[in-house]
Amino acid sequence: MRASLLQIAVDDGESVDARRQRVASLVRQQTGSDLVILPELWTTGAFAYESFDAEAEPIEGPTCEVMAKAASDAGVWLHAGSIPERVTGGAGAGAGAGADGGLYNTSLVFSPSGDLVATYRKIHRFGFDKGEAVLMGAGSELVTVRLPETTVGLATCYDLRFPELFRGLVDAGAETLVVSAGWPERRRSHWTLLARARAVENQAYVLACGTAGGHAGVPQAGYSIVVDPWGEVLAEAGAGEEVLVVDFDPARVGVTREQFPALKDRLLGVATPRRR
User: Fold this and answer.
1) Mind giving me the DSSP string for 78-125?
2) Is residue 215 part of a domain?
3) Is residue 109 part of a domain?
4) Among 26, 51, 67, 90, which residue has the fewest nearby CB atoms (within 10 Å)?
């Protein structure tokens, strides 16, 4: 199976619409890949808090339209990163930005025919009571997507620091963990460490795609990474904009879990039947 991680440079001098069209062109070039992955909030920048409200869009908005067409043109499964989603009605929606409604950090996944097959609202919002943590609502559902060769579990950026989320994805059948991120350069060492840790502890592939450039003056880490179920780095990008292409064998997940069955020894967090 071949994956392309598109480490997009997000810079203030490029308009959102121009970036959509540029990224769509990059997706169309990945015709030899099975899965294409984009970073978190690449339309606005993950730290461009002042742009969230102005650039927010419904799920089936302009980014969805452009990315659906790009996925279909390339014939690939596309994790189109995340967008600032605006919810204008229904349960949990508020009047504008706010922690309990209005905006969400939402990932979109498309099939090779261009159909939107899954969305994931980021559960763990970054900011420590400011920024994203107060401007966007928290998701509540774990999401997996079944591809022909593997089941993919979805996570976004700050989620990477919370191992229980990934345990939940593995319990739901995930064999490949996809992380879409806008990770800052000053914590790049954590990015690499945590990606490898999530792979080792869950005996799963981790495909972690970040951004390059700067988000509202915050330099981005880059260094998108693909890690195998044994924790070995299969491929790693540099600091700038780059398309990282890697071939991996989904069957290695089952082999690793059979040869070193650590997951079977879990005791905490595993439901056990009551004895009467």
Assistant:
1) EEEEEEEEEP-SSTT--SSS-TTTTEEEEEEEE-TTS-EEEEEE-SS-
2) yes
3) yes
4) 90
Q: Can you give the length of the chain in residues?
A: 276
Q: Does residue 271 lie within any of the structural domains?
A: no
List residues bridging with 83 in a β-sheet: 106
Number of folded domains that form the chain: 1
Catalytic residue among 40, 55, 236, 242: 40
Three-state SS at 139: coil
Concerning whether 157 is annotated as a catalytic residue, the answer is yes
Look up the CATH number of the domain holding residue 226: 3.60.110.10
Query: Tokens 């690939």, residue?
Result: 76
Cα(221)–Cα(232) distance, integer angstroms: 20
The pLDDT, as a whole number, for residue 89 is 65
As given in the structure block, the two tokens for residue 5 are 């991680």
Q: Which of 55, 64, 85, 122 is catalytic?
A: 122
Report if residue 204 sits inside a domain.
yes
pLDDT digits (tens, 9 = 90+) for 34-68: 999 999 999 999 999 999 999 999 999 999 999 99
From the candidates 55, 85, 132, 157, which is the catalytic residue?
157
Query: Which residues contact residue 215 at a Cβ distance below 8 angstroms, ignoring those fewer than 6 apart?
Result: 10, 41, 45, 46, 47, 48, 182
Average pLDDT over residues 222-244: 98
Query: What range defines the domain where residue 174 resides?
Result: 2-263
